[in-house]
Amino acid sequence: MAEPVKVLIVDDSAVVRQVLSQVLSEDPSIEVIGTAADPYLAAEKIRKQVPDVITLDVEMPRMDGLTFLQKIMSQHPIPVVICSTLTTKGAEATLKAIQYGAVEIINKPQLGTRDFLEDSRVVICDAIKAAAQAKLKKTSEPPQRVITPKHTADAVLSRTKSNNVLKTTEQVVVVGASTGGTEALRQFLQALPLDAPGVVVVQHMPEHFTAAFAKRLDGICGVTVKEAADGDTVIPGRALIAPGNRHLLLKRSGARYYVELKDGPLVCRHRPSVDVLFRSASRYAGQNAIGVIMTGMGDDGARGMLELKEAGAVNFAQDEETCVVFGMPKEAIKRNAVDKVLPLEKLAGAVLRASQARAPQ
């Protein structure tokens, strides 16, 4: 039996500390070793027992979470999961935390809320387990843990046997990422030129944070980046990011690609799900698609990437060395769904070359 992931909860709200403790303690593979109302109390607890993962609030008295995070990462790196509020200000601060080294984001429960939906429990516990596997400067690697998928893409989009996709002159790039993916996507999208094929992305991230994430990327990338809205057209030089808590599907009308947002159950324990995006791309783009799977825990995207390959797409996976967590790419590789495994810095170039090679002459 693997040792449970030891978690320290740091939040100035007694309600949040209580609810998170209850949710995490119900998972036998997680052990809450303590809580702290501010970073100073947290530092005292860390000196007595070093946790595997810290959940950290951003806004706290005496010392804010961002300052504490910077101290942790510079002095004694520990995987940190940010527990943030569903506000614009909270989203912007959380994205700064990701830049400073936090590896996951979870939504902070609203004050007075004691009951969580089962979906929320799954997402919170999985975020902790993913953080425990993140590659930081630690003396030993946390044990690998197997995640049992909750639903497949069948729950959102049924699979068809026919791959009779109308040929078009446009290529479309579909990308899936999770833990560590925010910075991986930044590097990937920054490397794309203005005339790059249209890109559709599923990054596992909570509701409301994806808009701030897309806005941040839009300001630093050559291509246009926006949070996807229902019916948005996929065009060259633009990347669409799936909104948190909504599945995103690639669709087509004639030669025009567009996206559709859908509700539905968690697929592979996520919403949005990479498998749902990849399945829709296999159906509506087929050999016109280029698939990319990046860093993340679990197997979301592996089945969908195989369907992409069977439909004639070319697929790339981020290599283990450059992944924060080599889970999703590893599972896709195991299914023989990947054509080439590459370090992060080479993915954009490979995608562009594949697009040029497949473009009609």
Q: What does it look like?
A:
With 361 residues, the protein is α/β, with parallel strands linked by helices. The protein folds into 2 domains: 5-133, Rossmann fold, CATH 3.40.50; 153-358, Methylesterase CheB, C-terminal domain (Rossmann fold). Helices cover 35% and strands 20% of the residues. It has 11 helices and 14 strands. The strands form 3 sheets. The protein has a 7-stranded parallel beta sheet with strand order 8-9-7-6-12-13-14, with helices on both faces. A 5-stranded parallel beta sheet has the order 2-1-3-4-5, with helices on both faces. Strands 10-11 form a two-stranded antiparallel ribbon. Helix 6 (181-190) crosses helix 11 (344-358). The radius of gyration is 20 Å and the shape is elongated. Residues 137-149 have low confidence and may be disordered.
Write the layout of secondary structure elements.
Blueprint lengths: L4 E6 L3 H12 L4 E7 L2 H10 L4 E4 L8 H11 L4 E5 L3 H13 L3 E4 L10 H16 L38 E6 L3 H10 L7 E6 L5 H12 L3 E4 L10 E4 L5 E7 L2 E7 L11 H11 L4 E5 L8 H9 L3 E5 L9 H7 L5 E3 L1 H15 L3
Parallel strand pairs: 1-2, 1-3, 3-4, 4-5, 6-7, 6-12, 7-9, 8-9, 12-13, 13-14
Antiparallel strand pairs: 10-11
